[in-house]
Inverse folding.
């Protein structure tokens, strides 16, 4: 190839405001690339158009488009802060610190989602995983439907096997004592739950404890005298009972009394968790036959019930929690009912308040529902991909 060592290049730049075309000097170097092609480099003076910098800005702008509107709208807050005088300097510093903290938190959460989302958020009913990986931060929905600070015990959540047309239904029951319940409420959807606008209110006979659950348009609950399972059809309000002869009233969870029968539901069906004298207070999980309200299989674990704060089922696995400190609990134990395999775990999660009376998993949305000292709280559950 023929190379030009030095040359004068005429670069035409159209300036829209001024109109005339300008000719600028530049340097040109030539060389041969690795594959034998001719490489020509043009060096323009600083007054020329900064194409390389424009390209860099264009690439960076793509990243900024990923930020949510609340981050983009920070400019309005900054403009407001600029109007403050020196007497508000401390407020300005505090506001900037809060903005910086929000930005860093968002960036961190974005990075976490990019790693976790493809692997660990599974479709409802999917059990192709090896167990729970982590629990999200708590989402505090609001105070209970009775607006009562004394109703520190209770339950809330969704139907874990809803009838058609009731997929969005929520239930709630709150009370000041574990010895008996007050009323239970049904809400057609989340908005009605927030507005406390129920479509049905009912009470239960011989109601005790608060680890109730709604499954298949029926509420399952603990009844007393004698200790037994109770079931109420939410349409007809017809009641059924079944005594669990080996279940003991001696053992309850560490946070609360009278929690002898803990009902749970997951992708595999309906369960009840309890302890007996024969098991020396160790947790037993029983699979419930919904048609006959009877226990069709039992599994005894190695966990002493009074050391646990609560328990729930997910994909046929029993998960047991315990308190770490005033703000943290952890899932410390798992029992697989299909393989009888036991595992020690360390899956921490934050608590809104120290003690809670209700914790249940719902397979329809893969969330944990907690009743925490009178407040509705929920968590997202992330699973290890198989």
């Amino acid at each position: 190839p023929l190379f030009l060592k030095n040359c004068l290049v005429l670069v035409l730049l159209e300036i829209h405001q001024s109109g005339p075309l300008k000719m600028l000097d530049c340097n040109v170097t030539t060389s041969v690339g690795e594959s034998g092609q001719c490489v020509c480099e043009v060096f323009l003076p600083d007054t020329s158009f900064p194409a390389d910098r424009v390209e860099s800005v264009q690439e960076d702008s793509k990243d900024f488009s990923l930020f949510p509107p609340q981050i983009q709208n920070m400019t309005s807050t900054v403009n407001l802060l600029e109007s403050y005088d020196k007497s508000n300097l401390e407020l300005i510093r505090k506001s900037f610190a809060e903005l910086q903290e929000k930005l860093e938190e968002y960036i961190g959460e974005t990075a976490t989602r990019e790693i976790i989302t493809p692997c660990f958020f599974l479709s409802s009913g999917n059990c192709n995983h090896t167990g729970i990986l982590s629990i999200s931060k708590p989402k505090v929905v609001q105070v209970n439907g009775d607006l009562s600070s004394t109703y520190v015990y209770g339950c809330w959540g969704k139907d874990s096997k809803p009838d058609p047309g009731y997929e969005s239904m929520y239930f709630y029951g709150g009370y000041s004592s574990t010895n008996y319940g007050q009323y239970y409420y049904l809400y057609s959807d989340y908005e009605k739950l927030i507005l406390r606008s129920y479509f049905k209110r009912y009470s239960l006979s011989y109601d005790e404890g608060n680890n109730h659950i709604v499954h298949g348009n029926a509420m399952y609950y603990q009844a007393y005298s004698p200790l037994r399972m109770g079931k109420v059809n939410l349409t007809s309000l017809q009641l059924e009972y079944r005594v669990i002869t080996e279940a003991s009233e001696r053992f309850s969870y560490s946070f609360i009394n009278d929690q002898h029968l803990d009902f749970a539901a997951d992708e595999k069906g309906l369960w009840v968790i309890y302890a007996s004298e024969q098991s020396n207070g160790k947790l037993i999980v029983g699979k419930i036959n919904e048609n006959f309200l009877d226990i069709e299989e039992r599994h005894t674990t190695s966990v002493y019930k009074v050391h646990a704060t609560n328990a729930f089922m997910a994909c046929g696995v029993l998960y047991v929690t315990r308190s770490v400190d005033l703000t943290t609990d952890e899932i410390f134990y798992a029992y697989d009912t299909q393989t009888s395999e036991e595992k020690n775990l360390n899956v921490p999660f934050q608590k809104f308040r120290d003690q809670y009376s209700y914790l249940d998993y719902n397979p329809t949305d893969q969330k944990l529902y907690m009743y925490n000292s009178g407040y509705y709280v929920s968590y997202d559950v992330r699973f290890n991909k198989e």
